[in-house]
């Protein structure tokens, strides 16, 4: 009896599965011609697609794309495709078929790769003189080998985020500006807050690259060192600038001023604890105010201040990340239509709305001069100040063995010889750099006149 | 004797209940978590929700396009189950019961695919192949690739096949049954428990598959499956993940697997029930 | 019997499986493996470098550390999960009260997605305010809690989580295997005065032979290859303490993007070589196991 039941259900599943599949397939097949038929009947609609991995502005962009589709007089119809973490994988695969997008959202860490993969088309021929003047040209961020591939819209700044209530409780009046002050402040905050389970400092070390990429990086950059260990003056990797920073972090941890369990802490739990008032300070990007106003409503009063420097002297610039937004696909069959859409997206009205709605901090000088401050609590501290500046792009390499962030975190946990760790990192990173230059055509040339302090001050005085 | 039995029973039940408790705690936390706000869930300080947010479910349902995507997921999962069981049981039958040239090669091939893991790297050649077959924007491509990964189900069925007495084949042969007929009428019904557990595992695997449907529905959003919709729940209006929606979505998407489990579980009952009757 | 006819039958039944495996399984792997002799970063031209990737593996301490971690992880997972699931299957195959419910309970963990597991287990194990530590402190078992995800205990924790997720699977496979043992065998043996433990030792285990052998084999392969739950729980940390072979490999192919601005370099060529060596290690252990366990393959 039971056996028969099983067999029947198995064959039913089989039949249903096949039938359902057949259905979906025929439905899909029958849809396609009817769609294209409708398109040609209504008079030459040019269909283009725009792919983005951004989520924070998805509703806004959806609305604006619908507006464009309804109002443009050139018969252009834009399909918006919003993807997540898998954006790069999906894009790679789409370029193997005819289904690649016409307009692509590019970021500071993807535009270089996409350029090398020949996904992008230069936009110089479309740019009016007006636009050329309005949008700053940034080498390796939107311009490659003399040609422009994208234009900036908004960018991201990095700051020290701090709990004002806890500062008041500990009797501290101003955020730390040196590493020593950072260590001392963390200690005092912990002393004042520990009874309530609050600690002075936290970092999201579940991913050391993520933790140090938002903390050690900006401290190094403010102090005049490349945030990823690359020295633009000599065109060599040199991590020695990180030594005092990592030592200070280790000191904070050894003092017991670090939130317990940071080894496995992700950024979201860190934010949630900060919103609850359990963390005194941390370093992060300008996406934080949005989190505390919408997702993790902060129960405490907080603010953002410039990141500390090693010794109180700002010899560099606090990285202002961005410089690119939309790019034209090299494989697009409708480049003119795609550019019309890009023009619409880069209109003053749109860029102003981006800043004023709090989606990002404008990097276009004429917009940042005129647009209002967004109405998001805490964003004031993230707006460009005299320290912010755009760093040049460093040549990323894949060294043999442990990555710098992992090596530094290992030292923070286990101790050991930091000088030896740094010497070893320098050796391996430079070996990988030499190899990539020799064999893969990577370009890295010394710039003896490079002055990191001169990067700052271009967005605000 | 009597007290010994009672002590034995008590120890057994303490063991079972303790293990069940430990097993269920994370599941209970998942379910309770799906009713919390994002901040309460991410902070992790509470066990019970301080306030029950049933709206998480309504939001997750809408945002993940549950009603439409579930149909696609069912199509993919059920077809994959049917295809996998068919292909793997046929292969297991001939490999166990017959001798032929290339058998060792075939087994080696199946083992090889199990030893290797290059993750999503194989997506590129697989996608290339499907482009050539014009299946790169349909669920058929996904189903075929999922069916092709049937090595472990093959080995499971092979081991179950060994437990079916060969005398049965022999008897059927003497009765004049062809090899194919023996497979369908004698072997498959006796393979019930193996097929049941194989179906369940395949269903679960296909139901949770994320990258394949994502890649193959890039240009056809109407074909997306539930996992793709669920993954989208993570993203909100700002930088932090919407963990509360993820939890609610996960709880909803567990249901079909539990239904599959109920069906599969029936197949573990048959022998006991059968021999009781006999 | 006609021999050619038999062979034709065998090949026709094997064809769908062989074809699918070859085209969609083996070919894509071969496609990826050919890069093991190249320096390839995922774009541009792949540069032939002979065996350089393999000599790099030999001096790659991180990789060998991950191999050691893999053995610890897989060993721990197998030693706990196989006996436990076998025991549960044997108990829940008997007509005890509530066995249907208990089977469902032990199956539950296997349906929870890994992405959700990360959140749930962090809630349980995190040392700052995790549920487990709150419990331990409240009942005075530990004064300040245990650093479950810290350097000392992280491996133990990921093993426990893996066991939690695996027991239900193997229990079901064993349960299914037990259905092939006719009830009357037990009945006659209990008449002979055999107790339950003796029954288990002399009837259940031998008759479960082939299924037991195969399930353990799959369990070994899964344990050696498993990395997803570790990835979501600790990402291999802290400081590489839970980095297993296939997680290390995964990171070579898909570097974890730390901050939004660091450019990640995909190590496609080196990754392929590591994938090959890892497959060799898994294959070798499987083959050794398979020969060592041949005896289980017979039903006497």
From TrEMBL, chain A:
Superkingdom of origin organism: Bacteria
InterPro entries: SBP
Classification via CDD domains: PBP2_TMBP_like
Record's compositionally biased regions (Polar residues): 24-39
N-terminal signal peptide: 1-26
Keyword Ribosomal protein recorded: no
Sequence segments annotated as region (Disordered): 24-44
Keyword annotations: Signal, Transport
Gene3D superfamilies recorded: Periplasmic binding protein-like II (3.40.190.10)
Pfam families for the chain: SBP_bac_1
UniProt family annotation: Belongs to the bacterial solute-binding protein 1 family.
Official protein name in the record: ABC transporter substrate-binding protein
Organism of origin: Paenibacillus helianthi
From TrEMBL, chain B:
InterPro entries given in the database record: MetI-like (IPR000515), MetI-like_sf (IPR035906)
Keywords: Cell membrane, Membrane, Transmembrane, Transmembrane helix, Transport
Cell compartment(s), UniProt: Cell membrane
Membrane is among the record's keywords: yes
Principal location: membrane
Membrane-traversing stretches: 12-35, 74-95, 107-127, 139-161, 182-203, 245-264
Annotated ranges, domain ABC transmembrane type-1: 70-264
Domain of life: Bacteria
Signal peptide feature range: none
Pfam families, A to Z: BPD_transp_1
Membrane topology: Multi-pass membrane protein
Family: Belongs to the binding-protein-dependent transport system permease family.
Family annotation (PANTHER family): ABC TRANSPORTER PERMEASE PROTEIN MG189-RELATED, ABC TRANSPORTER PERMEASE PROTEIN MG189-RELATED-RELATED
Protein name: Sugar ABC transporter permease
Source organism of this protein record: Paenibacillus helianthi
Automatic annotation (TrEMBL), chain C:
Domain ABC transmembrane type-1: 67-289
Parts of the chain that traverse the membrane: 12-33, 71-92, 104-125, 154-181, 202-224, 268-292
Membrane topology, record value: Multi-pass membrane protein
Compartment list: Cell membrane
Record family assignment: Belongs to the binding-protein-dependent transport system permease family.
Record protein name field: Sugar ABC transporter permease
SUPFAM superfamilies named in the record: MetI-like
Domain of life: Bacteria
Cross-referenced Pfam families: BPD_transp_1
Record lineage: Bacteria, Bacillati, Bacillota, Bacilli, Bacillales
UniProt keyword list: Cell membrane, Membrane, Transmembrane, Transmembrane helix, Transport
Keyword Transport appears in the UniProt entry: yes
Main localization of the protein described in the UniProt heading: membrane
